[in-house]
From TrEMBL:
InterPro entries: DNA_mismatch_repair_MutS_C, DNA_mismatch_repair_MutS_clamp, DNA_mismatch_repair_MutS_core, DNA_mismatch_repair_MutS_sf, MutS, P-loop_NTPase. Keywords: ATP-binding, DNA-binding, Meiosis, Nucleotide-binding. One of its GO terms (cellular component) is nucleus. Residues 157-495 form the DNA mismatch repair protein MutS core domain. SUPFAM superfamilies: DNA repair protein MutS, domain III, P-loop containing nucleoside triphosphate hydrolases. One of its GO terms (molecular function) is mismatched DNA binding. Gene3D superfamilies: 1.10.1420.10, P-loop containing nucleotide triphosphate hydrolases (3.40.50.300). Belongs to the DNA mismatch repair MutS family. This is DNA mismatch repair proteins mutS family domain-containing protein. It comes from the Eukaryota. The lineage of its organism: Eukaryota, Viridiplantae, Streptophyta, Embryophyta, Tracheophyta. The keyword Nucleotide-binding applies. GO terms for biological process: mismatch repair; reciprocal meiotic recombination. It comes from Rhododendron williamsianum. Residues 497-576 form the DNA mismatch repair proteins mutS family domain.
Length: 576
C-alpha cells in the first residue's frame, strides 16, 4: 500500500442500515491492516451511536448505499454523512454491493483468525448488516487501491457494547481506544493492574522493558499492512519508475520486520522471570514461539545482516538499495553499481564547486522530493551567485540551489535507485509470500508491543514519577458503590476531590463499579433550532437519559432544574 502518513486518517468505513433501526459498520484501517465490524440498534433519531463511531474512527472515506432504505422517522445514513461530515469523501455504491453472504465469505477468507474463533459461524445471521458493510468496503478498497487482499492476513474484530462502554471520542491508537472505550471486563482490568503491581515492585523489570521497547521500530503495527496487500497484476507497465515508491515501502517493511524480530530475544530475556499473568502470557505466546525464529531465519537467507532501518533519507535509500545480499540478482548488482557511481559523481561535483567558486562551506543535502541540492551559507556569498546556479531559494541563513549538471546526475541517480527498488522487490517476492502465510503471528506481535508500550511507558511511567501515596490501585466491583477518597485530576493534581482503563488512579482510596454507559448533560442555554427554552432543552435531554439508562449506567448531573423555580427543580431532581 502507499504511505498514508500524509492522510488525516487511514480508515475506510462502510455504513448500512435497515428499517428496524439497526446499523452495520465496517471500519477498514489501511494503515494497520485491520477490519473492525460493529452492529447495533440506533436508539436515537439523531444517530448518536453512529456519530460516536464516526468521531472515533475519523474516516477518510465513507461508503454508503443509496438513501432509499432509511427507517421511519430517520434521515438515513447517506443524508447523515452529507449533513454532518461533508468534509469526508462519500462514496455511494449500489445496494447489491452490500451483500452479507459475500461479506461473510470474504471475512472468513481474509481473517487471520479461524472463523470459529471470531464467532462468525455462530453470529452470521445476527450480524448480517456489518458483513454487508464489509463486503462493500473491501470491494471499494480493492478497486480504488488496485490491490488484492491476501487470505488470512487481516486482524478482524467484532466490536459491540459487550466488552467496552462508549463515551465521547477525540484522538488515536491504543491508548486513545482505551480512553474512549474503557474496559468493562473486571478480569482483564485486574490482569493489567497485576502487571502494574509487578512493574512498580520490580525496578529491574520496569527499566528493562522500557529500554527493550525502544529497540523495536515505532511503525511495527503499520508494517503489517504492506504484507496484506499485493498488486492485482504484474506487467511491464507496473515495473516502472512510478511503481518504485511502492517497492521502496515494501523493502522498508521487510527491514523494519527484521529489526523487530532481532529485538525479540532481548524482550524474552527481560520477561523470563515475570510473574504476572499478562507478562507471563506475553512471554509464552510471543517470546517462546518458534514461528518468529523461523521467519527471522527466512529473512536472513535473503536480507543482508548489516542492513538496518534508518530515518535519514539518503541513508535509508542506500540501505534499501543494498538490502538484498550480493550475488542473488545480477541485474540488481548492475543497478547498485550505477547508483553508487552517480552518488559518487554528485559528491565529486560538490567538491569541484567548492574549489572553483571558493565556497568552502557548500553542502550537498538530500530529500526525497528533489534529491540532492546545494546549500550555501549567506556569509560565503560575495555579491551574486555565479549564473551556473539555478533554482535559487533563500532558506533561513542559507541559499538552496542546483545546477544543470547536478539535475542531470539527480535524474540518473533516481533512475538507478528506482531500478534497485524494483529488482529488490522481485528478489523478495518468495520471501514476502512466505511472510504473508504467518501474518497472524505478526499481528499478535504488533498487538503485544502496543499493549506493553501503553502499560510501561504510559501507565507505569506516570505512576513512577509521582509520590508513593498519590496513586493507588482501585478496587473494581460488579454492584458495589462508586467511592473515591481524596481523588485528584490526573493533570491538575493540587486539589483533592471526594467524589480507567486498567491503571492506578490519583487518589487516596477508590472502589469503582463497572458501568456500561456514562450519561451527563452540560450547559444552560436556549435551543433556537428546536424552538426550546433552556428548561425545555434540559428536560428533553434528561428524558433521553432516563429512557436509555440501565442498572449499570452512571449519570452525572449538576443542578438539575436550574432553569425553573427552586421548588420545581427540587421536585424534578427527586423524581428522577
Amino acid at each position: 500500500m502507499e504511505d498514508d502518513a500524509a492522510e488525516r486518517s487511514s480508515f475506510v468505513i462502510g455504513l448500512i442500515e435497515n428499517r428496524a433501526k439497526e446499523v452495520g459498520v465496517a471500519a477498514f484501517d489501511l494503515r494497520s491492516a485491520s477490519l473492525h465490524l460493529s452492529q447495533y440498534i440506533e436508539t436515537s433519531s439523531s444517530y448518536q451511536n453512529t456519530k460516536t463511531l464516526l468521531q472515533f474512527y475519523d474516516p477518510m472515506v465513507i461508503v454508503v448505499p443509496p438513501n432509499k432504505f432509511a427507517p421511519d422517522g430517520m434521515v438515513g445514513v447517506s443524508i447523515l454523512v452529507d449533513r454532518f461530515y461533508s468534509s469526508i469523501k462519500k462514496v455511494v455504491m449500489a445496494r447489491g454491493c452490500f451483500d452479507d453472504t459475500k461479506g461473510a465469505v470474504l471475512v472468513k477468507n481474509i481473517a487471520a483468525k479461524e472463523p470459529s474463533a471470531l464467532g462468525l459461524d455462530t453470529y452470521y445471521k445476527q450480524y448480517y448488516l456489518c458483513l454487508a458493510a464489509a463486503s462493500a468496503t473491501i470491494k471499494w478498497t480493492e478497486a480504488e487501491k488496485g490491490v488484492i487482499i491476501t487470505n488470512h492476513s487481516l486482524l478482524v474484530t467484532f466490536n459491540g457494547s459487550f466488552d467496552h462502554m462508549n463515551i465521547d471520542a477525540t484522538r488515536t491508537r491504543l491508548l486513545r481506544t482505551n480512553l474512549l472505550q474503557p474496559l468493562k471486563d473486571i478480569e482483564t482490568i485486574n490482569a493489567r493492574l497485576d502487571c502494574l503491581d509487578e512493574l512498580m515492585s520490580n525496578e529491574q523489570l520496569f527499566f528493562g522493558l522500557s529500554q527493550v521497547l525502544r529497540k523495536f521500530p515505532k511503525e511495527t503495527d503499520r508494517v503489517l499492512c504492506h504484507f496484506c496487500f499485493k498488486p492485482k497484476k504484474v506487467t511491464n507497465e507496473v515495473l516502472g519508475i512510478d511503481n518504485a515508491r511502492k517497492s521502496q515501502i515494501l523493502i522498508s517493511s521487510v527491514i523494519l520486520l527484521k529489526t523487530a524480530l532481532d529485538a525479540l530475544p532481548l524482550l524474552s530475556k527481560v520477561l523470563k522471570d515475570a510473574n504476572s499473568f499478562l507478562l507471563g502470557n506475553v512471554y509464552i505466546s510471543v517470546c517462546k514461539n518458534d514461528k518468529y525464529a523461523s521467519i527471522r531465519k527466512r529473512i536472513g537467507e535473503v536480507i543482508d545482516e548489516d542492513v538496518l532501518h534508518a530515518r535519514v533519507p539518503f541513508v535509508a535509500q542506500t540501505q534499501q538499495c543494498f538490502a538484498v545480499k550480493a550475488g542473488i540478482d545480477g541485474l540488481l548488482d548492475i543497478a547498485r553499481r550505477s547508483f553508487c557511481d552517480t552518488s559518487e559523481a554528485i559528491h565529486n561535483l560538490a567538491n569541484k564547486y567548492r574549489e572553483d567558486f571558493k565556497l568552502p562551506n557548500l553542502k550537498i543535502p538530500f530529500n526525497k522530493r528533489q534529491g540532492f541540492y546545494f546549500s550555501i551559507p549567506h556569509k560565503d556569498i560575495k555579491g551574486k551567485l555565479p549564473s551556473k546556479f539555478i533554482q535559487v531559494m533563500k532558506h533561513g541563513n542559507n541559499v538552496h540551489c542546483s545546477t544543470l549538471e547536478l539535475a542531470s546526475l539527480n535524474v540518473r541517480n533516481k533512475s538507478a535507485a528506482a531500478e534497485c527498488y524494483i529488482r529488490t522487490e522481485l528478489c523478495l517476492e518468495a520471501l514476502v509470500d512466505a511472510i504473508r502465510e504467518d501474518v497472524s503471528m505478526l499481528t499478535l506481535l504488533a498487538e503485544v508491543l502496543c499493549l506493553l508500550d501503553m502499560i510501561v511507558n504510559s501507565f507505569a511511567h506516570t505512576i513512577s514519577t509521582k509520590a508513593v501515596d498519590q496513586y493507588i490501585r482501585p478496587q473494581f466491583t460488579d454492584n458495589g458503590p462508586l467511592a473515591i477518597d481524596a481523588g485528584r485530576h490526573p493533570i491538575l493534581e493540587s486539589i483533592h476531590n471526594d467524589f480507567i482503563i486498567g491503571c492506578y488512579i490519583p487518589a487516596r482510596y477508590g472502589t469503582i463499579r463497572v458501568v456500561d454507559r456514562i450519561f451527563t448533560r452540560m450547559g444552560a442555554v436556549d435551543n433556537l433550532e428546536s424552538n426550546s427554552s433552556t428548561f425545555m432543552t434540559e428536560m428533553k435531554e434528561t428524558a433521553f437519559i432516563m429512557q436509555n439508562v440501565s442498572e449499570r449506567s452512571l449519570i452525572v448531573m449538576d443542578e438539575l432544574g436550574r432553569a425553573t423555580s427552586s421548588s420545581d427543580g427540587f421536585a424534578i431532581a427527586w423524581s428522577c
